[in-house]
Design goal:
Length: 555
């Protein structure tokens, strides 16, 4: 049994168990290190679940550390959103909220140490000129004319960089490593650059800032991170990560890479997502079409479904493309178990029960969730005039074996109500069906049917006098192309023009009149919906979270 358990572990879990068993580590310390320059997306959810989840599973801790080394793009808005997203997913970092900027003094001293060891130098070359000398993966680079400056001169110039004596871009501090390395990241990478701008936490204290490559590994070391988990694009950075730790003689945190989460019909590039926001292709970072955690939360995806999806996708060593249908299935599974059913008529057509007294209102019990008895029931007003959906009536329907809804002389059951028989209809001047007429059978009341009648069709309905109007936002996938990583043109050319449809004519049952922002329901036969933040006391707004089944299924 123990061997079977071991075989089910992913490669990172296997590594951790080996490290603990060998005594290499006595505990597990991970970190989630977001850059506060945008909102987190579904790909980050995998990293969050992995880092926090591993720490939980092995009795360790996971730090939250913001890699805030680029004041040009960072903002406290992003910091706050990131913290909210992590907590929404169900994780907490207790009092271990750290920032790379917490370590600016230590990082500066580390840079001084590298200079003193002859492993760093101040370079005056502009980036484009250095890149010309850098060479190619198969051809060695040519040294910068400033590469052999003396230690004393480098210390003086780096100190003056810190004091603000030079203009932005005038000088950088580079590591002095190997200009013939096939790994271009080892060819004298930048460690510090000049940026004359305030930082969201340190204000104007600094005008030089460490690069991500320099700050990341050293911050890991300062925090005694045992397992530094990164996505595969950082694999080529690992030799630099290890070189810096070795030459600085600091705690040897160890970087391990795993495949990032790629989703079909989705982009998970923060740069591209920012382009969508800033170009007004979507309505902000939390637009329900966005794959940001804020967006999917607003749309109605649940943290439980996200965690289950991440679990099912697993942890791999090679990049692949995950079918977004798997995510949508996880959402449906979770919402199916926990949401109440209600009636929402998207395209109302008036139905008049001609043998029902005009002033009579009968309150009928309706089950909230057939899979959850504890959800109880509600009452619905059954009246002479009702609304059904336009799609539920056909003037000239096919044979009864192919059409189970309403048509002339056809019988159906109004769910939780009575069996009715269509006796006629009325057309508007443009030829569309305006009203349909029917008679009900009083012996067919749901739960008390003594008629012996059997009908296959069951329709949803809402009283014409007892209902509410709402704005229904029908969200769909944002992109039309399945693999957005393989396209050669502008990714925005693949936007789905029908990713949002707004319905203002829908009528909903009266039980929803007190619905609150965040409430989630299933509109029977239609899909799952969430009350949106744009709702007001005068108007409810519902976002469609997802349809009842995959409308994009192939074939």
């Amino acid at each position: 049994m123990e061997e079977e358990k071991k075989e089910s572990l992913n490669f990172i879990e296997q590594m951790i168990e080996k490290d603990l068993e060998s005594g290499k580590h006595t505990s597990v310390v991970t970190r989630f290190p977001p850059e506060p320059n945008g909102y987190l997306h579904i790909g980050h959810a995998k990293s969050i679940c992995l880092n926090f989840g591993l720490a939980q599973n092995y009795g360790g801790i996971c730090n939250l550390r913001f890699d805030d080394t680029n004041p040009e793009k960072e903002d406290t808005e992003y910091v706050d959103s990131i913290k909210n997203d992590i907590k929404w997913l169900g994780f907490d970092w207790d009092d271990r909220e750290y920032y790379a900027s917490d370590y600016f003094d230590q990082l500066y001293e580390m840079a001084i140490k590298l200079i003193k060891k002859g492993f760093a130098y101040v370079d005056d070359l502009p980036a484009d000129e250095f890149n010309k000398l850098k060479g190619t993966p198969t051809e060695p680079g040519t040294p910068s004319p400033y590469r052999d400056r003396s230690i004393e001169e480098n210390l003086d110039l780096f100190g003056r960089m810190k004091e603000g004596d030079f203009k932005e871009g005038e000088r950088v501090l580079r590591a002095k490593i190997d200009l013939s390395s096939p790994n271009m990241h080892m060819r004298d990478p930048i460690l510090y650059r000049i940026k004359h701008m305030d930082h969201h936490r340190t204000g104007s204290d600094w005008c030089i800032y460490p690069t991500y490559d320099f700050a990341h590994g050293q911050s890991d070391s300062i925090e005694n991170i045992t397992h530094s988990l990164c996505t595969l694009e950082f694999e080529v950075h690992r030799p630099l990560y290890n070189w810096l730790i070795k030459e600085l003689e600091i705690y040897p945190s160890e970087q391990t890479e795993f495949a990032r989460l790629n989703l079909s019909y989705t982009v998970v590039s923060k740069r591209k997502l920012r382009e969508l926001v800033e170009g007004n292709y979507v309505n902000g970072w939390d637009d329900p079409r966005m794959p940001t955690i804020s967006g999917i939360k607003r749309r109605g995806f649940t943290p439980e479904s996200i965690r289950e999806f991440v679990r099912k996708t697993g942890v791999a060593k090679r990049d692949g493309l995950n079918d977004v249908a798997l995510l949508e299935h996880a959402v449906r599974e979770d919402l199916n178990a926990k949401t109440n059913r209600v009636f929402g008529i998207m395209d109302p057509l008036k139905l008049i029960i001609t043998n029902w007294p005009e002033d009579k209102v009968e309150m009928l019990p309706a089950v909230n969730n057939p899979g959850d008895e504890s959800a109880g029931s509600r009452e619905m007003a059954f009246t002479r005039e009702l609304y059904v959906d336009q799609a539920d009536f056909m003037e000239d329907p096919p044979s009864p074996k192919k059409w189970y809804r309403l048509g002339p002389d056809r019988e159906v059951r109004l769910k939780f109500g009575y069996i009715i028989k269509c006796t006629g209809f009325k057309k508007a001047d443009d030829g569309t069906i305006e009203e349909i007429y029917a008679e009900y059978d009083p012996n067919t009341k749901s739960g008390h049917d003594t008629s012996g009648k059997k009908v296959k069709g069951t329709l949803g309905w809402v009283s014409a006098q007892h209902n509410i109007n709402a704005e229904i936002r029908l969200y769909d996938r944002l992109f039309l192309s399945e693999n957005m990583n393989d396209i050669d043109d502008d990714f925005k050319n693949h936007l789905n023009p029908d990713s949002l449809e707004i319905n203002t004519k829908a009528v909903l049952e009266e039980s929803l009149k007190n619905a609150k922002v965040g409430d989630q329901v299933q509109f029977e036969r239609i899909g799952y919906f969430r009350v949106d933040e744009d709702s007001t006391p005068d108007k409810l707004v519902f976002n469609r979270t997802i349809t009842l089944r995959d409308n994009w299924a192939k074939g």
